[in-house]
Design goal:
- By secondary structure, the chain is an alpha/beta fold.
- The protein is about 15% helix and about 25% strand.
- It has two helices and seven strands, in the order E-H-E-H-E-E-E-E-E.
- Strands 1-7-6-2-5-4-3 form a seven-stranded mixed beta sheet.
- A hairpin with a 2-residue loop joins strand 3 (about 65-70) and strand 4 (about 75-80).
- The relative contact order is 0.26.
- The model has no long low-confidence stretch (mean pLDDT about 85).
């Protein structure tokens, strides 16, 4: 477990995501939690940029997930906010976003209700972001 760190704005939150990205390996799953506006997508954007994504990176809230081609392999960004739970969804809904070579970031993992529904995969890291006043955020990384 890593003690919480504090960022001073969006660029610093992206930099924290980029720092985490350097530790990841193909097949890793990163859960990213925090309340609305805590900086989850900003953190993931920094990680995806560090992993070689040059196209626009936005929250996949309305499409559940986006697949990207990274410098060293496939990357996935999921946002489960709009799902009330996956028990009523197609069991294979999330399958395209998990693979042995895919690094997957999952925002709002709490909506999955079960880690088994997240591809039955081992979780490499669990990142929690929280408001710390103004543009400041605290970031706690567990695992690894």
């Amino acid at each position: 477990m890593t003690s919480p760190s504090e960022t001073t704005g969006p660029a610093a939150t992206e930099a924290a995501g980029a720092a985490l990205a350097r530790e990841l390996r193909p097949g890793d799953v990163v859960l990213v939690s925090g309340e609305l506006g805590a900086g989850k997508t900003t953190f993931v954007r920094g990680a995806l940029r560090a992993l070689g994504v040059s196209e626009a990176i936005t929250s996949p809230t309305f499409v559940v997930g986006i697949l990207y081609d990274g410098a060293a392999g496939p990357l996935a960004h999921l946002d489960l906010y709009r799902l009330a739970g996956l028990e009523d969804e197609d069991p294979g809904l999330l399958d395209p976003y998990f693979g042995a070579d895919t690094i997957t970031f999952v925002e709002w993992p709490e909506r999955a209700e079960s880690l088994a529904l997240l591809g039955n995969r081992g979780i490499a890291r669990h990142v929690t972001l929280a408001h710390a006043g103004g543009d400041h955020r605290t970031i706690e990384v567990r695992g690894g």
